[in-house]
Write a structure and sequence with these properties.
By secondary structure, the chain is mostly helical. It has 2 domains: about 450 residues, no CATH class; about 40 residues, no CATH class. Helix content is about 75%, strand content about 5%. It has a 3-stranded mixed β-sheet. A hairpin with a 2-residue loop joins strand 1 and strand 2. Helix 5 crosses helix 6 and helix 12 runs antiparallel to helix 15. The longest helix is centred in the middle third of the chain and has 38 residues. It is globular and about 80 Å long. The N terminus is likely disordered.
């Protein structure tokens, strides 16, 4: 884990040293030159290493926990080596989910490469590739998320190819019809025109299954992630990180703890900001949205030092090298790292004993015993979250760095000016934050109980050690029977006497 983060940091430093320009426009030249092909090749090379090495590395040490008695959980490893990870990535439909994830990631990598090589001009064919690679996971992500959540409720029903096909067609029709109904309602309400606001509402409706799933999983996983990432920071093995991390791994866990601690406040700020802006329509709407919502703007107008920093921040945002660095860090932290933390907790089963109202596709015992159940978790994580995270990233880039992004002039000509882009981003974020906050409020009651749970991180080694105890026929039989029947209390009593 430490080595992977050192390589990532070295890559960031190397990328930030490349030359940059200062304005964005679309190249009208149809020529294919080395300068226009280089960004594409660089992005493909990085994507290859991410797929070949980074993803399997992050899927090492996947674990699943299930209760064997009151407040005692056994934790079993599903993967331990890179070979185990790659074998799991070939199971079921995991490859399909990873493909969608890699498409979105590669699209963003090409955008970063374009900014690094020549930010003043985007190659037209690269823009087509970027749009295709990003749109496909964005369009498929909510469909896959909805199907996964519905299939988890029908686990006791024998599935068939025809039944799955009918369900998929039905869910696709539901998504399309509900989105069209929102557009039709907005069209009628606005007197025969489609306003950007209603287009944003339609996008929200289409992405709703993924947004709801992401919010529920985050809210139900918060307790487990916070407690165990703090233990990782302190160098203590835990169900999420069974091996002691090195310095960089512990530093990343500490940053993640800070991020988790601020999530409830950030969510409340986002929800109240959107309500305030949409209900009151204040004259300073753009400033409120641009400077961090109600809390951020309140600090901005009251503290001169913060105001001065943010004015300089506005200047920094106009630099393409800063946009490329922002995108790179976002991919490294959110796109690559945090999604794997959620995946680990999803497979571990931490939502069930650490939170409430999460998304549970299979029981922990099914995950331990069945490859198909393990494959379902990974497919859902990759296919379900890839589109939403990439879409949010692109929306934030148009919000913060509109002058550097391609097609900004086209968007503004169709009503998506800076104010509308700001509101759209805040809408998408606030809906997910509302779901997270509601789930978090009911899950936080389990925080103290989770602190008191015991986890047996090495049950197989413990049993082997117990059976190897010496001390006469009667004691040996007692130990073997207790180990076979998973009688933990008996084993503890034997080992302590």
């Amino acid at each position: 884990m430490g080595r992977s983060r050192r390589v990532g940091l070295s890559g960031l430093l190397a990328l930030s040293a490349l030359p940059n320009a200062s304005a964005a426009s679309i190249s009208t030249s149809g020529e294919v030159t080395p300068n226009t092909v280089a960004p594409l090749l660089l992005a493909l090379v990085i994507a290859y290493f991410v797929r070949r090495w980074f993803i399997p590395q992050q899927l090492k040490n996947l674990q699943v926990a299930f209760e064997i008695e009151d407040d005692l959980y056994e934790v079993h490893r599903i993967t331990r080596t890179l070979r185990d990870s790659r074998r799991l990535l070939r199971a079921g439909r995991v490859g399909y989910g990873v493909l969608l994830y890699m498409m979105g990631l590669t699209g963003v990598l090409i955008l970063i490469s374009e900014l690094l090589f020549e930010a003043s001009m985007f190659a037209q064919f690269n823009l087509y590739i970027i749009a295709t690679l990003i749109l496909i996971p964005v369009l498929i992500s909510p469909w896959e998320s909805l199907n996964s959540q519905l299939s988890s409720r029908r686990r006791d029903v024998r599935s068939s190819v025809s039944g799955d096909f009918i369900r998929r067609i039905t869910t696709l029709a539901f998504l399309l019809i509900s989105t069209l109904l929102v557009l039709a309602y907005g069209y009628q309400l606005e007197g025969g025109t489609l306003t950007p606001t209603w287009l944003a509402f339609a996008m929200l409706m289409f992405m709703a299954p993924t947004i709801f799933a992401y919010g529920r999983i985050m809210g139900a996983s918060w307790n487990m992630l916070l407690i165990n990432k703090w233990r990782t920071t302190r160098g203590r093995p835990n169900p999420i990180d069974p091996d002691k991390n090195r310095f960089l791994g512990r530093l990343f866990s500490f940053l993640l703890v800070l991020f988790l601690l601020t999530m409830p406040i950030t969510a409340l700020n986002g929800i109240l900001t959107v309500l305030y802006v949409m209900i009151n329509n204040p004259a300073n709407q753009a400033e409120v949205l641009n400077y961090g919502g109600i809390i951020g703007y309140s600090i901005f107008v009251r503290i001169d030092v913060i105001s001065e920093i943010l004015f300089h921040w506005e200047f920094v945002k106009s630099l393409p090298q800063f946009l490329s660095l922002y995108l790179t860090l976002n991919i490294a932290i959110v796109g690559l790292a945090f999604i794997f933390e959620l995946t680990r907790n999803l497979i571990l089963g931490g939502q069930t004993f650490g939170g409430m109202f999460g998304v549970t596709l299979d029981t922990p015992r099914e995950i331990r015993a069945e490859k198909s159940a393990q494959a379902r978790q990974l497919t859902f994580a990759f296919a379900g979250f890839s589109g939403y995270t990439v879409l949010l990233l692109i929306l934030v880039c148009y919000k913060e760095f509109g002058s550097l992004m391609p097609l900004t002039a086209t968007l503004e000509a169709n009503g998506f000016d800076e104010g509308m882009r700001l509101l759209t981003v805040w809408l998408f974020i606030a809906v997910g934050q509302f779901i997270f906050l509601m789930t978090w409020l009911v899950s936080i009651s389990r925080f103290q109980h989770l602190l008191n749970l015991r986890f047996d991180l090495n049950p197989d080694e413990r049993r082997e050690g117990a059976v190897r105890l010496q001390g006469g026929d009667k004691l040996q039989n007692l130990v073997e029977n207790a180990a076979y029947n998973e009688d933990i209390d008996m084993l503890i009593r034997i080992q302590t006497h």
